[in-house]
Amino acid sequence: MVSTPEKTLVKPEVYETKRILLTSPILHIGSEVSKLSPFEYVQTDSRVYLPNSDLLAKALSKKGKLQEYIRRIENLEEITSLLKEAFGDNWQNEKLDGQAIFPNTGISRKWTVDKITDLRPMIRNGFGRIYIPGSSIKGAIRTAIAYHLLKHSERYQVPGKSRVSEIENRLRATMGTLNAKKADDDFMKSLFSEFELFYQGRRSSGKIEDSNEDSNRDFMRAIKVTDSKPIIKRPLKSKDGRKKDVNIPVVAKVIVSSFANIRTKEGFLDKLAKYKAPIYAEMAYEVWTEFTLTLDTKMLSWFSHNDNMAIPFGTIEDILKICKEFAQDQWEYERKYWKSIKNNPSEELDFDSIREDFYAQSKCPYGLRIGWGSGMMGTTIDLRLNEQLRAEIRDVCGLDAPNYEAPKSRRTVINNEGEIKFAPGWVKFKVL
């Protein structure tokens, strides 16, 4: 049902818009397909190719090699020799009907000598290019704002039912039931959606067109985030004239590790790193892209909270400061974690570079953490909650992990030289 004219809100053109440069050492934003089957990629010693599967099947069929291809895939055998038999040494450049079987948008450097059995692809746009969705950036901003409101409850007059102590009480009361999700939804609704909209001196019902009423009353409607520009490999010239490649697609080995607080016979805490099976993920390395952040300042003025809670920002600069504060608190927590964990030579877990290089600075150099690998602390307000409660939430949502702090595990990325070098997802923002 379309709303009547008197209830329709016509937005004045009053915006603050900024182009934001986004840079990152390395990140991964997952796609709708969590893992690719062996039919969907080809690996050599130095590259991983995501072919046009239909074209590849048709081309192999024309060469009478389709059944052999299927047999090799099913038996987890290498297929590059088959591709050479079918198309020659330059099989990577093969085309069918003028279309590339192995398009440039699907070629990544392979950073591991391992044979990849499961590959997690990066999200792509409609043209097959890697990018960062605006929804991923906005979701992280939303979490940062929720965290900021809870951290500074008195300053913004956050309602008592949405303060940390009450959230903890509700979560404990509903732990292990379907109502735990409702408890989370309720406090987020109170923070973001319990507003009335006043436009031209009149209160609006919030029911604009056919949209959900809660989403209409959510002050995050005033923030718009575009998708990033495609992350395309290119040379970048620095101020001193040096050139380096940016936006490099790589397939890297990701280590999932943890440690437990278990007392030894001598009474000491054993914080030795523990190893789980690796993950192979397509990632963007040396990311250099941009997106547009828009704040509808006029719309923001329409919102009035039912319990007089103040909206914590009025400019884009305010939003970026809130994100920076959230990043700093996460950074301090991660530095503490990595200082605690001990290397485990028997499992080839050496985190010296993570401790001493990546997390060397006490001041966080980044503006936010987004995407895969951000974990509980980057995607929730859990850092504001009691440590024991965090562990209980983790155990209810996943597998029980007694003696492990929450979150239990961390993801780190191995570079092309075999060193555990990066923590994924950290990004910098710079207003252009």
DSSP helix fraction: 25-40%
Give the termini separation: 42 Å
Question: Sheet with the most strands?
Answer: 13 strands, mixed
Number of strands: 22
How much of the sequence lies in strands comes to 15-25%
Shape by Cα distribution? globular
Q: Given the helix and strand composition, which structural class is it? A: alpha+beta
Q: Number of helix segments?
A: 13
In round numbers, the mean pLDDT is 84
Written description of the protein model:
The chain is built from 13 helices and 22 strands. It has 432 residues and is of the alpha+beta class.
Topology:
Elements: E1 16-27, E2 42-43, E3 47-49, H1 53-62, H2 66-74, H3 80-87, E4 95-96, E5 99-100, E6 107-110, E7 119-120, H4 134-151, H5 153-156, H6 164-174, H7 179-192, E8 195-199, E9 202-204, H8 213-216, E10 223-225, E11 234-237, E12 243-246, E13 248-258, E14 262-263, E15 269-270, E16 274-275, E17 279-295, H9 297-302, E18 303-305, H10 316-340, H11 352-358, E19 368-369, H12 375-379, H13 387-397, E20 409-414, E21 420-422, E22 426-431
Parallel strand pairs: 6-13, 7-17
Antiparallel strand pairs: 1-17, 1-22, 2-3, 3-6, 4-5, 8-9, 8-18, 10-17, 11-12, 13-16, 13-17, 13-20, 14-15, 19-22, 20-21
